[in-house]
Amino acid sequence: MRTQATAAGATFAAALAGIDWSRPWFQPFAAQGAALAAAVQGGADLRAALDAQAAALDLRNARGLPLRFIAQHALPYGSAYEAHIHATGEVPTRDNLHDFFNALIWLHFPRAKRVLNQVQAEVIAREGVRTMRGGVRDAATLFDENAVLFLSADEELADALKGFAWQRLFVDARAAWGARCAVVPFGHALLEKLVQPYKSVTAHAWTLPLAPGQQALDAVLAESLQAAVRAGALRGGRSFAPLPVMGIPGWCDDNAQPDFYADTTVFRAGRRRDQAPG
CB within 8 A of 274, min separation 6: which ones? Predict the structure, then answer.
């Protein structure tokens, strides 16, 4: 058992060593993420390191219980993951990149994560755990796993994203990126994919009418999610706009050439009713 545990720890440490924190998509999390990764590579237990940070930040779940990170095997048999977090404040966490990034998002967006966890737990309490999650829980899971936040107070840029107008968004408005629009990753499965990025990686974009560099982003996002739940707007994949993230200027050297966006297997035209006019 010790040999297996040692091998698993070495595998996890090697995976953490493969994260290039200088990549633009990791930049919002680089300081804390790199420090955590270095601690684990140095022999620290991931969950203990996370607990220390959660306690220092006084992180809590939607019921006000202190947030703690526990081993996956400590999740009681038959308990739903999301329901357990909501009931106890305990986040089952394995030694892998998927759960590492999930924990990192908890540290950076605790309010938004609380909202999503509460939504999921309430649906489970009402409907039970089913093979098909249903619209609201499906949208919450998609957000949790694969979302990016598209920040822009410019309605034309948001409309270009929602309308699959890739030429307008990425080529014509290239100078707008970083000034009038920006993207901040949220989904932990998305971050895991981006350790070894490829052209077709596509995120679920959630638009917020904010200028890049907005302060208190977590609070604004949590309010946006709560408003969407109240309005019934958080429902299934149609709650989001697909965004091929390697098309973002500065995220991939190859996209400096306009013909990068001619690949319609990645930069799809979308449904006719979703396409931007003009």
Answer: 162, 163, 164
